[in-house]
Amino acid sequence: MYLASKDMADLFNDQRGINDGFSFYTVTDKASFSQPKGLFVRLNEDSGELLEAIANGAIAAVWDVEEMLPQYTPNYFPVFFTNDSAEAIKEIIKLYNEKLDGETIRKMEITNFKFSNKKLLNKNKQTYDIAVILEKLTNKMALNKDGRG
User: Fold this and answer.
1) Is residue 1 packed enough to be buried (19+ CB in 10 Å), middle (13-18) or exposed (0-12)?
2) Which residue has the higher pLDDT, 132 or 2?
């Protein structure tokens, strides 16, 4: 089960672009990472540029409401706005972890979370929670590894 755009719409009230019920295969905080059908979460300038994330497969982004969205951003491109990107990551991972807990299928397609842990772990005290939840999610992904094509 993939993280869906509907899940994101439930988490973020402030958004723009289309929301046609698509799924995310990847969630990352680095524009340079390959992110097929990806959700790009920009933590800071070190995360990279939105254009690079789009070139690497991002189909939506989580963006700090205080930062100017690049002018080249297509009107239809889904953007979910947040006041705190690290908190947004925590909420996304938490929601997805809860979503997977309800599943009984052992082998299924799941969203791949790729984060530069060094950046996350240096952000602030809430990142410990992110690391713990991400570790649980990684363990689930390892159990389902045989189900991925």
Assistant:
1) middle
2) 2
Residues whose CB is less than 8 angstroms from the CB of residue 36 and which lie 6 or more positions away in sequence, other chains included? 25, 26, 57
Q: Evaluate whether 53 touches 40 at the Cβ level (below 8 Å).
A: yes
What is the Cβ-side half-sphere exposure of residue 117, based on CA atoms within 13 angstroms? 10
Side chain identity at residue 70, one-letter code: P
- Per-residue pLDDT of 35-73, as tens digits, reads 999 999 998 888 999 999 999 999 999 999 999 999 999
Residues 133, 111: Cα–Cα separation, whole Å: 14
- Tell whether pTM > 0.85: no
**CA–CA distance, 136 with 11 (Å, rounded to integer):** 21
